[in-house]
Amino acid sequence: MCGSSYQQAIIKVKLMVQVWMALFGFICVVLIISLPARASANIPTTATFVYVTDFLSGRVLMEKQKDAPMKPASMAKIMTAYIVFDRIAEGTLALTDQFIVSEKAWKMGGSRSFLQAGRSYSLDELLHGVIVQSGNDAAVVIAEGISGTEDNFATEMNLTAAKLGMKNTTFTNSTGWPDPNLTTTAHDLALLSTAIIKNFPADKFPELYPIFKKKTYTLNGIKQGNRNPLLYGKPSQSKGVDGLKTGYTSESGYGLVASAERGGQRVIMVLNGMNSKKERSAESRRLLDFVFREYKNYEFFKSGEIIDKAEVWLGDAHHVSLVLENGFSKVLSRAERAKTELRLNWAGPVAAPISKGQQIGELIVTIDSTVADRLPLLAAEDVGQLGMLDRIGEALKYLIFGAPVIAPPEK
Fold first, then answer.
1. Could you say which of 74, 193, 259, 284 is catalytic?
2. Residue 402: half-sphere exposure toward Cβ, Cα within 13 Å
């Protein structure tokens, strides 16, 4: 009889535990980030083609005819530089390698580095000639030195463009010299510029990408300035600018691909189709300042930061810490930031045992009531399960005294 009563008591405990778990399941903890509201401006621009992105996230910050065909002019030289960088990175070229100036290169018109026909120049000198001086002659020397002919080099340019996802680009030469078949888009030039910074970072290749921010270079005793207007002016105007390239032909108008980093946030900006150098300078400064002022990378949680603690059922700890694997940050406009809500959602209390890294719930991010992200909430530590007698004891306490009083977690 006593054994039967004991078995009935155990069954009753199990049933009550199941009921208790069901009643307390699907608890939602809401954490709302409330910030002052401010509308985001929709700024017009005189540029015909515009594409501005956040470098790390790839988020599009501004766009105007981003996939419409346009002429790159000398902005095509970014691809010439990319191919050289790639060869240097893989070890098949060195900056000390010498290249001879052909008659074709020497006769090139437009912007020039004033190279002497028949003379050899180092690849380092030629790169500076292409990037800083925008020398058409230097670009042709590089193309012929790498591929034998400029036509062969154009083929390599197009193969590289395809690998980078530049689906609407056709290169016909190393310089951006006018050609009926030469075409690209603002979107494609942004892909190329992002790739050259990401694939050849300055900390790993200090002799490569930093060339783009040099203001002057002297070759053959002739000093020429970088045509990128964003590199000049007051420190506040040129803050963080480190590239990339301008371009102009009568067909393309005035264009610029720019990169700048402020406060740990890098922006890639492509503009084209402007009417003068003055307009290009003024418009590029205005839009860059606007983008950095309006959009920021907001860090909500650092990697490993404890976001909250969930109650644990029948564990050797009353709570388990909740974290995100990589923290959480997001590029937002001011208006979006003001309308951002974060909800921490999990079913609890969480039954032990719990393993470190186990998903407990999720962080739900909404912007203006629309779900933007769902990120897994993970256990920050292991939580063991109580022994059999302790579990029975906890269940009996619940039957006798009701829900256990658990001290709030330490913050």
1. 74
2. 1
